[in-house]
Amino acid sequence: MRGVFDIENRKAQLATLEKQVSAPDLWNDPEKAQKLMQEKSYIEQPVKEIEKLSQDLEDAVILVELGESENDPSIVEEAENEIANLLKAAQKMQIISMFSGEADENDCFIEIHSGAGGTESCDWAAMLLRMYTRWADLRGFTYEIIDENPGEEAGIKSVTIRISGQYAFGWARHESGVHRLVRISPFDSSARRHTSFASVWVYPVVDDTIAIEIDDKDLRVDTYRASGAGGQHINKTDSAIRITHLPTGIVVQCQNQRSQHKNRAEAMSMLKARLYELELRKQEEKVEAENAKKTDNSWGNQIRSYVLHPYQMVKDTRTGYETGNTSAVLDGDLDDFMSSCITGNIGK
């Protein structure tokens, strides 16, 4: 991993960045300063993690030798448990080393749309929103709800969130597809079993390192009043923005900011990300397959099934990876599912 992450080169880069961020006039340009701090954090994180793994491994080996020399099985067991934990941490770092895509290090947008099933599916979409925000919390990422369309009775019809953190897109990119839920419906007075569907679509936040050209004449910009929860804090003016990219038909919208200017900037960021993601799919010759996944939120197109009744199981239909701990998954424990897709561990 030291070789893969090019640790020595990263240390040289950090030395240069340290001088730049310690300059007294750094914050005269807040935007530039923020980018420098982020770049420093991204370069520094693998260095810190690998150095810590190395030191912890040395300490664990010394502990094993100590336990053996004193003939104390409890010390040896403690050290072996620590080494097992280090192995898991190293495996996650190894997965990160596989992120080679141009945008894998970037933040990402996650769109969730309720599918066939009415109120049931709207509730399922809300459960998925909670699952991904909990996953972001567990990984130390931050998230922001960009746009939300509530369901008529419960849950949400659609929502877009932005997840910020190093390799957010790399981790989450394989979550795109239809997610299927089987459970006893809390909305059915007869307590019957229901099947619900919702689609998830993940695409990267496009930064300045990726050039996306957009012609103003290709855009239709509409303003509208923000909807949904908010009470006295809800926007009373037409500050929400909807942008339609006419050549592709892509529509993005943002209503989370009070300022129309800020909502427009966020919507343009989303549009650039969508166009970039579209180009990626064209390059991978999967446009038709991905469009089918996004538009047909029904039986036979799911990438993952979440069964809560009559038994407990979450299974990824692409890799065969499964677990019976459904509550942990719905609470955001998704790393094993994501890892199985990234590494291609079919059937594990």
What does this structure look like?
- By secondary structure, the protein is α+β, with helices and mostly antiparallel strands.
- The protein folds into three domains: 7-96, Methane Monooxygenase Hydroxylase, Chain G, domain 1, CATH 1.20.58.410; 108-205 and 300-343, Alpha-Beta Plaits (2-Layer Sandwich), CATH 3.30.70.1660; 216-283, 2-Layer Sandwich (Double Stranded RNA Binding Domain), CATH 3.30.160.
- Helix content is 44%, strand content 21%.
- It contains nine helices and eleven strands.
- It has helices at 7-21, 30-69, 73-96, 119-139, 168-172, 260-283, 287-295, 326-330, 335-343; strands at residues 108-114, 142-150, 156-164, 177-184, 193-204, 219-224, 240-245, 250-254, 302-307, 313-316, 322-323.
- It has an eight-stranded mixed beta sheet, sandwiched between helices.
- The longest helix has 40 residues, at 30-69.
- The radius of gyration is 23 Å and the shape is flat.
- It starts with 6 loop residues before the first helix and ends in a 5-residue tail after the last helix.
- Mean pLDDT is 86; it is low at 230-235.
In short:
It contains nine helices and eleven strands. The chain is an alpha+beta fold and 348 residues long.
